[in-house]
Amino acid sequence: MGEIPNQSPDDQSPEDQGPEPVVLTVCTTCRPEGSDPEAPRPGRILADRLAGSALPEGVTVRGVECLSACKRSCTLHLSGGPARWGYIYGDLDPDAHLDEILAGAAAYASTEDGFVPWRERPVVFRKQSIARIPPVSMPSVALTPTQAPGAQTEDTPDTPALQSAKD
Amino acid sequence: MGEIPNQSPDDQSPEDQGPEPVVLTVCTTCRPEGSDPEAPRPGRILADRLAGSALPEGVTVRGVECLSACKRSCTLHLSGGPARWGYIYGDLDPDAHLDEILAGAAAYASTEDGFVPWRERPVVFRKQSIARIPPVSMPSVALTPTQAPGAQTEDTPDTPALQSAKD
Predict the structure, then answer these.
(1) Cys-Cys with B45: which of A61, A63, B39, B94 at CB 3.0–4.6 Å?
(2) Contact between A134 and A81 (Cβ < 8 Å)
(3) What is the 8-class DSSP label of residue A152?
């Protein structure tokens, strides 16, 4: 376990290589405002407890030193390769949320695209999402390239939007 | 600058395949609280203007329908493949921030790991970050697997943390 997948952009189809590992990336450094700076950080406690849990199949945990979402301590990023949605959750409590996080990660890992139906997500994932990130290959909505007011006209502003990574 | 230390077991080295495209993923649907729901969404305006700009080399723009960071409208995700840091920015203004976003994307695209020195980031990227996401291959800090208080002892909870992508 804990293998890092072939991340190649030329070969992202999960059908080709089996599902990518799911990673719970936990910020181990942030702390709630007003808390004792010398006390163990909640994110560190959460990461250690996740590491000490029976993680769902295909799920690993990684501690990192800053997810730069310090006001929403403690935070984690749920990801599973370029074909899956990614999610960032905050305001997590290692005492209250461990089991829900494990259940949510299991549900996520069982999908190919990381999209778990709303009602099947644990409450903490429904209520405490900070942001989500679409799969790399999700195509753009159709855009209407527009000059900003007052923009200088370039000679060759021929830089179309990413149309998509179809197929 | 931004060199990546031992990025991968399976060889994700950007030297081998050239840098990955940088993508500005803009939420085109969120809107500031209290604004007219019929009015064009600021994120849509931003995405259209980015698409109509002379984008830095290697940078594309993608509009998506929700980054689930609605309270920080408008929002974008800056990414560039699994070897780069990813960033989510919020409270963006298509009138005020277009040039800074383009400059920040250019600086980001010039790095291998997506890490632009703080002082070289545009102010909007310094002040309006919602979260950042480490490269896929960034190893975990050393964790101390711990049983949660009251956790049942499993027969074989032998699920160590992701140790890292050594070498």
Answers:
(1) B94
(2) no
(3) P
Residue A52 to residue B20, Cβ atoms within 8 A: no
- Report CB contact under 8 Å: B131, A60: no
Q: What is the rounded radius of gyration, in angstroms, for the C-alpha atoms of chain B?
A: 19
Q: Which residues of B touch A8 (CB under 8 A)?
A: 12, 17
Yes or no, beta carbons of A160 and B51 under 8 Å apart: yes
Q: Tens of pLDDT along A105-133?
A: 999 999 999 999 999 999 999 999 999 99
Residue B155 has which token pair? 């027969």
CB atoms within 10 A of CB A2: 18
Top-confidence residue, B44 or B71: B44
Whether residue A158 has pLDDT greater than 60: no
Q: B98-109 vs B42-51: helix axis angle to the nearest 10? A: 60
pTM of the model: 0.81
3-state SS, one letter per residue, for B116-156: CCHHHCCHHHHHCEEEEECCCCCCCCCCCCCCCCCCCCCCC
Contact B25 A133 (CB under 8 A): yes
Size of interface A-B (CB pairs under 8 A): 206
For residue A62, pLDDT over 60 is answered with yes
Asked whether the beta carbons of A126 and A118 are under 8 A apart, the reply is yes
Residues of A in contact with B91 (CB under 8 A): none
**A64–B134 C-beta distance less than 8 A:** yes
Nearest CB partner across the interface for B154, out of A54, A95, A144: A54
SS3 content of chain A, % helix, strand, coil (to 5): 20, 15, 65
Q: Which candidate in A12, A97, A136 is best for mutational testing of the B interface (most B CBs within 10 A)? A: A136
Q: Minimal CA–CA distance to B132: which of B95, B89, B100, B90? A: B89
